[in-house]
Amino acid sequence: MGKKFKTRYQIPFYESDVNHNVKLPHILSVALQIASDQSVSLGLGDERIFKDYNLVWVVSEHEVTIDRLPRFNEIVEIETEPISYNRYFCYREFRIYDQNGEKLVDIFSTFVLMDYDTRRVHDVPEDLVAPYESEKIRKILRGPKYKALEKATDTLYHVRYFDLDINGHVNNSRYLEWMYDVLDFNFLKAYTPKKINLKYVKEVQYGSDIESRLEQDGLITKHEITSNGYVNAQAITQWEKI
Q1: Class of the 151-239 domain?
Q2: What is the pLDDT of residues 26-68, one digit of tens each?
Q3: Which part of the chain is CATH 3.10.129.10?
Q4: What values do phi and psi take at 33, rounded to 5?
Q5: Domain named Acyl-ACP thioesterase-like C-terminal: which ranges (predicted)?
Q6: What string of DSSP letters covers 92-148?
Q7: Which pLDDT belongs to residue 8?
Q8: Which CATH superfamily is domain 3-134 in?
Q9: The whole model's pTM is what?
């Protein structure tokens, strides 16, 4: 197990939905910020990694398990722990607790290091991950297999300047926003996500047109983000009634 890092966070008005729950894409962004804060505390912030290694961190997968979404104005504790790594992948867990210590959300995330110039995955440097004290493993931990959507409905979006993050590629939370935006308003008001598997396949370029593709079977929704004939991201969400 790795070195833990935690912080308190209050759910703001502008990132709460009509049900007064935190918007899920926002909580993913907050989790990634806390991972970045830990790296900075260890002297391994994004600027240092870019300067010394010409590398940037990229998320490849999330598995999110939700007991309850945090509510507007609620103060929660978010803990992160870099669990393990192998030659190409680093695994990190995020846990969100209420003020009574009850776990609300668990996020298991897979990261890779990408060479900024070639945009290719780079081996994990041992000296870079050593301060996190995570376990080195051989096994590659994989999420579910995603099948191509055959009877999906498609909605078109255009990638804008403010969709991009500091590294110049589409912000991770934007993919989930595109996926959920195509769901019916009444469905989103009546149901809440219970489990989400989200995989990032290929980065979307600025100025592209993307399609958010949806197949729904009861309380299971399957999603794809595609552009220029390629799949960029895939997700499966299990829902439950509020």
Answers
A1: alpha beta
A2: 999 999 999 999 999 999 999 999 999 999 999 999 999 999 9
A3: 3-134, 151-239
A4: -65, -40
A5: 146-241
A6: EEEEEE-TTS-EEEEEEEEEEEEETTT--EE---HHHHGGGTPEE-SPPP-----PP
A7: 98
A8: Hotdog Thioesterase (3.10.129.10)
A9: 0.95
